[in-house]
Structure formats: structure tokens, C-alpha cells
Specification:
alpha/beta, Rossmann fold, 287 residues, globular, six-stranded parallel beta sheet
């Protein structure tokens, strides 16, 4: 049986659960499947090395690669084709190598949406504030608007990036109001929830992405960071009475769709979710 090879390219990703999730599901589906962690920070590489990393994976016969921070948008010029979703979002987290082609997909938006529906049932998402306008933020914005959010206000430390993403999403969803944010406190007063889509809260980027005093208990908080699973934002929000959603579900569901693209086999998403939970429970015991 030929081995299906895949991997993940990103910076500071030693805590990623993607290799374990993919290879466990590969075993469960009877495949010979390997999944390699390609951490550019650990290897002393930068964005300029991304073309060589893709070339190397393709040369070694990989079926595809997952792409994470900070390369989800930087990878776009290196691809030969994009799925409709990836083109609309302007960010790629999954690259499939097929017949000399490099096809970019985005499974993040679907993964986030599935996790949101599962983890925050009956949440009011009419008016939402999003923090972050990078690759992950493009996917979560697309997901919330597909779900039916009527007003999405996007904040980013890079104001021009927030403006650009808001403009792109407004064109895709003309029946909703999508705009860059100016006054976070005032906007939150009119919102029902917060989507957090920045690296803040990761082990390498500790802290809160907004003042703790802004976390009103009537707000729900949806996180994309999953390592650690209980970020400082989620801990603070929970202590103030907010409903919260960790980033684990998004990690699992986006991985399930990437697995299907790499292998041609439909994975058992519930089994993957159960496996992920067992891994994170072990982490908490060790902590």
C-alpha cells in the first residue's frame, strides 16, 4: 500500500495537534498515512523560504499541505488554482498537489462554522465584532456571514487590513453590513458576540486581545486559538459570565475536510473530535 504523505507549514507550531489527528484518522480508515510538521521558526526559516518548502513537498510526493499562520495569504501567489471558497476568502489553509497543479482550498471557514453551530447553539449572531483580519479572520468573517450575521464589524491592529477585508466581504455579502471598526467599546455595546481571530493567546503570544473590562456577560466569545485550549481570553470571559467557544472544534472540523481532500476518503468527524478531546484532556492532566 502506497503511503499518503501530507504536512503542515507554519511558524511556532510545535503544539499543533494536526499530525496526531490526521495520522490517527488515517489508521482508523486503514490507510498508510504520514503527516509532517514543518515549523519554519524551529528550522530558522522565513516567508522567503515558502516557495522552496512547497517545491520540496511536491518533489517528495506529498498529496498536499496544510498552511497556517503566518502563510495563509502569502501562499496565494505560489498556487496554480484556487477553489471558489479560497478565492472568495483570499486565504488558503490547504494545498492539494494534483497532476502538476497546486490547488488552494480553505477549510477553515467550514470548520469554524461547524464548531460554532455545535458549541454555541441558539446564539444570537445578528451583530458580531471580529478581532483580526488576517488569514484566519478572513475565514471566520466568511463563515459568520454565510451563517447569516447581519452586521459584522472588523477590528485589526493594522487598520488598512481591516478596511480591505471588510470591503471584500461587503462585496460578497451585499445584504449584510460589513465595516472596519473604529470604537471597540461603542461597537460592543451593540453586538451579541465576539469572534477572536488573532494569534494573541497562543503560547508564543500571551495576553488578551482587548481590555478585560469590555467582556460584558451578555456577550458570547468564539476563539480560533486552540493551543492552549483555555486561552487567557476564554478564562477571563468565563469568569465574567460570558458563553465561550474554544478553538478546538474549528481545528478538528477543518482538519477533517483537509483529510478528505488529501486522501479522497471521508473521515469520521465525530471520531476525530473524540480523539482531539482525549488528547487535550491528557494535556490538562499533565498541567
Amino acid at each position: 500500500m502506497a503511503t499518503i504523505r501530507a504536512g503542515l507549514i507554519g511558524a511556532e507550531i510545535q503544539g499543533s495537534r494536526s499530525p496526531a489527528m490526521h495520522m490517527h484518522e488515517g489508521r482508523e480508515t486503514g490507510l498508510s498515512y504520514s503527516y509532517e510538521l514543518i515549523d519554519t521558526a524551529k528550522r530558522g526559516l522565513g516567508p522567503e523560504d515558502l516557495p522552496d518548502l512547497l517545491d520540496d513537498a511536491e518533489r517528495r510526493g506529498f498529496s498536499g499541505l496544510n498552511i497556517t499562520h503566518p502563510f495563509k495569504q502569502r501562499v496565494l501567489p505560489l498556487l496554480t488554482a484556487l477553489s471558489d471558497d479560497a478565492r472568495a476568502i483570499g486565504a488558503v489553509n490547504t494545498v492539494v498537489f494534483s497532476k502538476g497543479q497546486r490547488i488552494g482550498h480553505n477549510t477553515d471557514w467550514w470548520g469554524f462554522l461547524e464548531a460554532f453551530k455545535l458549541g454555541l447553539p441558539n446564539a444570537d449572531y445578528t451583530s458580531v465584532v471580529q478581532l483580526g483580519a488576517g488569514g484566519a479572520g478572513a475565514a471566520t468573517a466568511f463563515g459568520m456571514l454565510r451563517l447569516g450575521t447581519r452586521r459584522l464589524t472588523i477590528f485589526d491592529t493594522n487598520e488598512s487590513r481591516a478596511t480591505a477585508l471588510a470591503s471584500d466581504m461587503q462585496k460578497l455579502f451585499p445584504d449584510s453590513m460589513v465595516e472596519p471598526g473604529l470604537d471597540l467599546s461603542a461597537t460592543l455595546a451593540l453586538a451579541q458576540g465576539i469572534v477572536h481571530a488573532t494569534p494573541t493567546g497562543m503560547v508564543e503570544h500571551p495576553g488578551l486581545p482587548l481590555p478585560a473590562a469590555f467582556l460584558d456577560p451578555r456577550l458570547w466569545i468564539a476563539e480560533v486559538v486552540y493551543f492552549p485550549l483555555k486561552t487567557a481570553l476564554l478564562q477571563e470571559a468565563s469568569s465574567r459570565g460570558c458563553r465561550t467557544l474554544n478553538g478546538g472544534g474549528m481545528a478538528v472540523f477543518q482538519a477533517a475536510e483537509a483529510f478528505r481532500l488529501f486522501t479522497g476518503r471521508k473521515p469520521d468527524a465525530n471520531r476525530m473530535l473524540s480523539h482531539f478531546r482525549s488528547m487535550t484532556e491528557e494535556d490538562q492532566v499533565r498541567d
